C-alpha cells in the first residue's frame, strides 16, 4: 500500500490518486507563515500592508512570470525587471482581492508611497525596482529561495509519492537560470497570495485568517514531528483527533504575531463563536469538527493545486528541487 495513503482514501474526483491534501497543508503552513513574515519591511508592522505590497509586486510582473524568456532574463538577485516593463494595478483591484474596503486599501497604499516603496501613476500603482534592490530585500530574496527549497524537501519527506510538479517538464531549448532568487520569489509570492486569498475567504478577514493559521501551525507541530502518524490523517476528509493537537495560548499567539493581546483575544473569540476553533484547558485548537465543511475541504484541496502550479512553473523553466 502507498505509505502516504494510510486511511486517507483518494482525491475527490480522482480514484487513482491518494488524497494527501491535509498532509501537504501541514507541510506548507509554517512556510506560508514565514513567507508573510518576510514582508515585514513593506508591512511596517501591519501584515495586511505587507501582503498588499506583495500583491502589487505580483501584479506588476505577472506577465514576466508567464513569459519564459523574460522570466529567465530577470531571474537573479542582481537583475530586477526595470520600471518601464512593470504593469500597474489599481487600488480597487487590490481591495477586491482581499475583500477589504477601498479606503482600507488606499490608506495602506498611501503609507507605502510615503515610505518611498510604491509609485502611483494614472494607470495604477507599482513597486519600483529601487525598492527591491535594498539589502533588506536581498536578504528577503535569499529567504524566499530557502523557503521554496525547504517546502519541497518537507513535502517529499512527508509524501514521497506526491507529484510535486504535476508532471511538468522543462521547456526544450531553455537553459536554466544560474541564479534563481527572483524567479523563486515570484512563484512563492503567487503561492502566498493564493493561500492568503483562500484564508480570507474562509474567515472573512485577513488578520483573523492569520490568527487561525497561526493556531493551526502550532496545533500541527506534533504531527510534523511524527510523519507516520501524520500520514494516517493525510486527506481532506480525515482530520486528526483533537487529542493529537498541540494547543496554543492567546498570549503566545499575540507574541508570535506581534500584535496587541486584546486584538488577538478579540479575534480568537470571533473564531470560537464561528466554530472555527475551540478553547481547551491548555489553549486554543482548531478541532476536527471545524474541517467538516466544504469550504475547509476546498481550501485543502485547492492548496494542492497551488503547490503543483508553483513547482510545475519552475520545473518548466529548468528549476527543480530534487
What key phrases describe this protein's structure?
mainly alpha; 56% helix; 322 residues; two-stranded antiparallel sheet
In a nutshell, what does this entry contain?
The protein is mainly alpha-helical. The strands form two sheets. The protein has a two-stranded antiparallel sheet with strand order 1-2. A two-stranded antiparallel sheet has the order 3-4. It has one domain (21-316).
Count of discrete alpha- or pi-helical segments spanning 4 or more residues: 14
- What's the Cα radius of gyration? 20 Å
Q: Please state the overall shape, judged from the principal axes of the Cα atoms.
A: globular
Alpha carbon gap, first and last residue: 24 Å
What structural class is derived from the secondary structure elements? mainly alpha
Unreliable spans: 1-15
Largest sheet: 2 strands, antiparallel
Question: What count of domains describes the coordinates?
Answer: 1
Describe the structure.
The protein is mainly α. The chain has one domain. 56% of the residues lie in helices and 4% in strands. The protein has 14 helices and four strands. It has a two-stranded antiparallel sheet with strand order 1-2. Strands 3-4 form a two-stranded antiparallel ribbon. Helix 1 crosses helix 14 and helix 8 runs antiparallel to helix 14. The two termini are 24 Å apart. Residues 1-15 have low confidence and may be disordered.
Secondary-structure blueprint:
Elements: H1 21-37, H2 40-43, H3 47-65, H4 68-73, H5 91-97, H6 102-114, E1 119-121, E2 124-126, H7 135-158, H8 181-203, H9 206-219, H10 221-224, H11 227-232, H12 250-257, H13 261-273, E3 278-280, E4 283-285, H14 294-316
Antiparallel strand pairs: 1-2, 3-4
Helix pairs in contact: 1-7, 1-9, 1-14, 3-6, 3-8, 5-6, 7-8, 8-9, 8-14, 9-13, 12-13
Amino acid at each position: 500500500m502507498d505509505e502516504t495513503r494510510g486511511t486517507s482514501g483518494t482525491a475527490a474526483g480522482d480514484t487513482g490518486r491518494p488524497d494527501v491534501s491535509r498532509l501537504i497543508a501541514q507541510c506548507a503552513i509554517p512556510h506560508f507563515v514565514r513567507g508573510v513574515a518576510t514582508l515585514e519591511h513593506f508591512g511596517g508592522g501591519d501584515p495586511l500592508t505587507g501582503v498588499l505590497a506583495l500583491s502589487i509586486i505580483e501584479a506588476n510582473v505577472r506577465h514576466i512570470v508567464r513569459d519564459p524568456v523574460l522570466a529567465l532574463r530577470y531571474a537573479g538577485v542582481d537583475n530586477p525587471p526595470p520600471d518601464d516593463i512593470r504593469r500597474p494595478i489599481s487600488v480597487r483591484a487590490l481591495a477586491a482581492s482581499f475583500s477589504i474596503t477601498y479606503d482600507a486599501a488606499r490608506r495602506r497604499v498611501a503609507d507605502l508611497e510615503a515610505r518611498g516603496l510604491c509609485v502611483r501613476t494614472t494607470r495604477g500603482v507599482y513597486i519600483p525596482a529601487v525598492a527591491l534592490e535594498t539589502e533588506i530585500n536581498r536578504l528577503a530574496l535569499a529567504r524566499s529561495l530557502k523557503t521554496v527549497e525547504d517546502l519541497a524537501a518537507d513535502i517529499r519527506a512527508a509524501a514521497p509519492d506526491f507529484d510535486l510538479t504535476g508532471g511538468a517538464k522543462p521547456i526544450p531549448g531553455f537553459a536554466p537560470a544560474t541564479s534563481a532568487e527572483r524567479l523563486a520569489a515570484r512563484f512563492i509570492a503567487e503561492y502566498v497570495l493564493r493561500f492568503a486569498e483562500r484564508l480570507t475567504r474562509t474567515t472573512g478577514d485577513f488578520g483573523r485568517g492569520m490568527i487561525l493559521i497561526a493556531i493551526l501551525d502550532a496545533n500541527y507541530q506534533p504531527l510534523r514531528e511524527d510523519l507516520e502518524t501524520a500520514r494516517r490523517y493525510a486527506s481532506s476528509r480525515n482530520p486528526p483527533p483533537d487529542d493529537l493537537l498541540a494547543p496554543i495560548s492567546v498570549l503566545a499567539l499575540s507574541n508570535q504575531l506581534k500584535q496587541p493581546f486584546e486584538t488577538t483575544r478579540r479575534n480568537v473569540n470571533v473564531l470560537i463563536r464561528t466554530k472555527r476553533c475551540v478553547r481547551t484547558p491548555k489553549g486554543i485548537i482548531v478541532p476536527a469538527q471545524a474541517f467538516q465543511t466544504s469550504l475547509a475541504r476546498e481550501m485543502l484541496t485547492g492548496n494542492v493545486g497551488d503547490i503543483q502550479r508553483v513547482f510545475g512553473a519552475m520545473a518548466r523553466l529548468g528549476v527543480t528541487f530534487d
